[in-house]
């Protein structure tokens, strides 16, 4: 079989998870991969266009591609205390943001979906790459921003205030952990190949967890603007037991997110089994 195209981001949690898989350190059952590293919204749009066999994408995007892609049970980002934050230069009440410009890290990000579920009237959305949001808020180009990834650890350096933790809101209102991003596979690959990829990815996560130092050079090569401390905090926050296997709690959280998004008309309804090709 030809190498499978595999998309993931240069963020430390993804390079940590995929390091062993793409460097031949984990058993891949004869499969090989051609990796492509892009920011999360670029990956979302590539998957929406069907251009990748396998990809890390936002769970919001998963809701739009369930007919062509299924979800793997390993490798994703899902947990507690790790959701997107709404930040601004001054302490707005969230209701005061109605009609104001709010930067979000892409139309198909889970951050955007959560904000729209929280308050559909907040419709002044400005889409931009996640790494540009804090600067745009600081300069007053937008009134507030929804930040993700390592921005969670550094927004204070920009003089910004947290208005709302969307993950905390989700956890409080639903009782579920927050599904952020997952790994999808084209259904056309077939059940046997998808299952082999899932097993291989689980081995890659387990390898990284058992030997965390081995991925350091690869992680740093793709995160040169972050300090070692921020890289470590990023991995600790987004890589957890759910990264090995979603389990019942993870699957229930995803089902709850999709049910709410479908009810709100934010993703199309689907009758396809989410996990089976």
Describe this structure in words.
The protein is of the alpha/beta class. It folds into two domains: 4-78 and 178-263, D-Maltodextrin-Binding Protein, domain 2, CATH 3.40.190; 85-174, Periplasmic binding protein-like II (D-Maltodextrin-Binding Protein, domain 2, 3-Layer(aba) Sandwich). 40% of the residues lie in helices and 18% in strands. The chain has twelve helices and eleven strands. Strands 1, 2, 3, 4, 5 and 11 form a six-stranded mixed beta sheet that branches. The protein has a five-stranded mixed beta sheet with strand order 8-7-9-6-10. α1 packs across α8 (191-210) and α4 packs across α7.
Instruction: Write down the CATH class of the largest domain.
Output: Alpha Beta
CATH homology superfamily of the largest domain: Periplasmic binding protein-like II
Span of the ends, CA to CA: 18 Å
Could you say which overall geometry the principal axes of the C-alpha atoms support? globular
Biggest beta sheet attributes: 6 strands, mixed
Q: Work out the strand percent.
A: 15-25%
CATH architecture of the largest domain: 3-Layer(aba) Sandwich
Order of helices and strands: EHEHEHEEEEHEHEHEHEHHHHH
| Contiguous uncertain segments of 5+ residues | none
Based on CA atoms alone, the radius of gyration comes out at 18 Å
Helix content: 25-40%
Tally of alpha and pi helices: 12
Mean pLDDT: 95
Counting DSSP E segments of at least 2 residues, the number of strands comes to 11
Domain count: the total is 2
């Amino acid at each position: 079989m030809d190498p499978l195209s595999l998309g993931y981001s240069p963020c430390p949690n993804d390079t940590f998870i995929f390091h062993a898989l793409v460097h031949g350190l984990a058993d891949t059952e004869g499969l090989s991969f051609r990796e492509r590293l892009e920011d999360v919204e670029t990956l979302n749009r590539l998957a929406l266009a069907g251009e990748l066999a396998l990809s890390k994408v936002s769970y919001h995007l998963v809701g739009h591609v369930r007919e062509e892609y299924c979800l793997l049970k390993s490798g994703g980002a899902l947990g507690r205390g790790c959701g997107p934050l709404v930040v601004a230069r001054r302490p707005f009440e969230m209701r005061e943001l109605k009609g104001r410009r709010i930067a979000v890290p892409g139309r198909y990000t889970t951050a955007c979906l959560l904000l729209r579920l929280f308050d559909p009237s907040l419709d002044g959305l400005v889409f931009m790459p996640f790494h540009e949001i804090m600067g745009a808020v600081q300069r007053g180009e937008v009134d507030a921003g929804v930040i993700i990834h390592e921005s969670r650890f550094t927004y204070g350096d920009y003089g910004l205030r947290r208005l709302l933790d969307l993950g905390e809101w989700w956890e409080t209102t639903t009782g579920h952990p927050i599904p952020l991003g997952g790994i999808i596979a084209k259904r056309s690959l077939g059940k046997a190949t998808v299952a082999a990829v899932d097993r291989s990815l689980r081995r890659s996560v387990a390898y990284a967890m058992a030997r965390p130092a081995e991925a350091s050079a690869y992680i740093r090569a793709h995160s040169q603007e972050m300090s070692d401390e921020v890289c470590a905090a990023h991995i600790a926050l987004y890589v957890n037991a759910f990264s090995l296997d979603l389990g019942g709690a993870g699957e229930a959280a995803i089902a709850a997110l999709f049910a709410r998004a479908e009810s709100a008309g934010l993703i199309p309804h689907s009758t396809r089994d989410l996990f089976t090709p």
